[in-house]
Automatic annotation (TrEMBL):
Reactions listed under catalytic activity: (2R)-2-phosphoglycerate = (2R)-3-phosphoglycerate
Protein name in UniProt: Probable 2,3-bisphosphoglycerate-independent phosphoglycerate mutase
Function field: Catalyzes the interconversion of 2-phosphoglycerate and 3-phosphoglycerate.
Gene3D superfamilies reported in the protein's UniProt record: Alkaline Phosphatase, subunit A, Metalloenzyme domain
Family: Belongs to the BPG-independent phosphoglycerate mutase family. A-PGAM subfamily.
Protein's UniProt keywords contain GTP-binding: no
Pathway info: Carbohydrate degradation; glycolysis; pyruvate from D-glyceraldehyde 3-phosphate: step 3/5
SUPFAM superfamilies: Alkaline phosphatase-like
TM segment ranges: none
Length: 405
């Protein structure tokens, strides 16, 4: 059910400020039965102190049993039904990069990968530096300006990630991914899901072959895996739906694209990678200009996908060290959660619920004492779905009028 007409009617402008912090992929699993999750293993005195004066619960980002991508996971947190508002990863990267992305274009998110004997050895090519990515993208731009009658435009995203925009007549975006999602398997062939997308599937497959030819002398970045083929979507904007003046603080293009898609102003962030200090600076310098902030932390997810349990613990602890500076700004409503779980044990997104912490003036007593999966089960917020978070934040911020007579 689309509740946006209800929110438009009930939303009211107030000076209160909402801060939504998304620790990407924060949910985890123990490495062995009875052991701690990454959150439980981390030393987080500031999160612990905050949990004692907050309400906690569990949140299923999209739907029980579904391991969501970051797109639907985030859209749900912003209050957008992820089954109605669907967008491909390619479009998100294009929007986040500010690429020349036109009506009729098809965008694809690419991963540089290491291939050997026709099979994927490393889906992320050893996580090369962004500078290495730029060097290889320059080679591809020169060697592959078009496939048949279709223009091919390459963009560096970061590390192993890149973007391709296809421009030409007769392109549609109903094609399958070429990423097998596992090592030891060959790249998949793009398949058209309808007749109108057959040309796009053919172009993607030819492009994959041509990239391998051009990069055959590269030791690690010698192939490409594509996913999220998509045209440019149009979604309702948060300002119209909720009456907010929202801003986004994120480093990676995909998350900036998500924020842009729903009408947030994407603030510039200094620094490379996750750039937590740069994000904190952006938050501090723009605190007076907006009433809703989305603050994204990426590396918790990256460590989980790499299977690096203790690396993920370290990223959680690094965020915890910066938390007092964030709290010093005095948000009226603060939520900390994740867009999905990425247990290091699984090296992938999973279907497990994530913990949710809510700090607001009008909360009931709570037994939870740490920001962990186990403690969140004891919290007063219960178990929510992702789309239920945004109305809760608006209500605690005094931004929703009474519904009905």
């Amino acid at each position: 059910m689309d509740l946006f007409p209800v929110f438009k009617e009930l939303a009211q402008k107030t000076p209160s400020k909402i801060l939504l912090i998304v620790l990407d992929g924060v949910g985890g699993l123990p490495l062995e039965p009875g052991g701690p999750t990454e959150l439980e293993a981390a030393k987080t005195p500031n999160l612990d102190r905050l949990a004692e004066e907050s309400a906690l619960g569990l949140l299923t980002p999209v739907y029980p049993g579904l391991a969501p991508g970051s797109g639907p996971g985030h859209l749900a947190l912003f209050g957008y039904d992820p089954f109605r508002y669907v967008v491909g990863r390619g479009a998100l990267s294009a929007l986040g990069l500010g690429a020349d992305f036109r009506e009729g274009d098809v965008a694809l998110r690419g991963n540089f990968a290491t291939l050997a004997e026709g099979k994927v050895v490393d889906r992320r090519a050893g996580r090369p530096s962004t500078e290495e990515n730029q060097r290889v993208i320059a080679k591809l731009k020169e060697a592959i300006p078009r496939i048949e009658d279709v223009e091919v435009h390459f963009y560096t995203e970061s590390e192993h990630r890149f973007l391709v925009i296809l421009r030409g007549e007769g392109l549609e975006d109903r094609v399958t991914d070429t990423d097998p999602q596992k090592t030891g398997l060959p790249p998949l062939k793009a398949q058209a899901l309808d007749e109108a997308s057959e040309k796009t599937a053919r172009i993607v497959n030819l492009l994959s072959e041509r990239i391998q030819e051009v990069l055959e002398d590269e030791p690690r970045m010698n192939g490409a895996l594509f996913r999220g083929a998509s045209k440019r979507p149009s979604f309702p904007r948060m300002g119209e739906v909720y009456g907010l003046t929202p801003a986004a603080i994120a480093s990676y293009p995909m998350y900036k694209g998500l924020a842009s898609l729903v009408g947030m102003e994407v603030l510039p962030v200094e620094g490379e990678g996750d750039a937590l200090e740069g994000k904190l600076k952006a938050l501090r310098e723009n605190w007076g200009r907006y009433d809703f902030f989305y603050f994204h932390v990426k590396k918790t997810d990256a460590m989980g996908e790499d299977g690096n349990f203790w690396g993920k613990v370290e990223k959680i602890e690094r965020f915890d060290a910066l938390l007092p500076e964030i709290l010093s700004l005095g948000p009226d409503v603060l939520a900390i959660t994740g867009d999905h779980s990425t247990p290091a044990l699984l090296k992938a997104h999973s279907w497990h619920p994530v913990p949710l912490l809510l700090k607001a003036p009008y909360l009931r007593a709570d037994e939870a004492r740490r920001f962990t999966e186990r403690e969140a089960q004891r919290g007063s917020l219960g178990h929510l779905r992702g789309v239920e978070l945004m109305p809760l934040l608006l209500a605690h911020a005094g931004k929703l009028l009474k519904y009905g007579a």
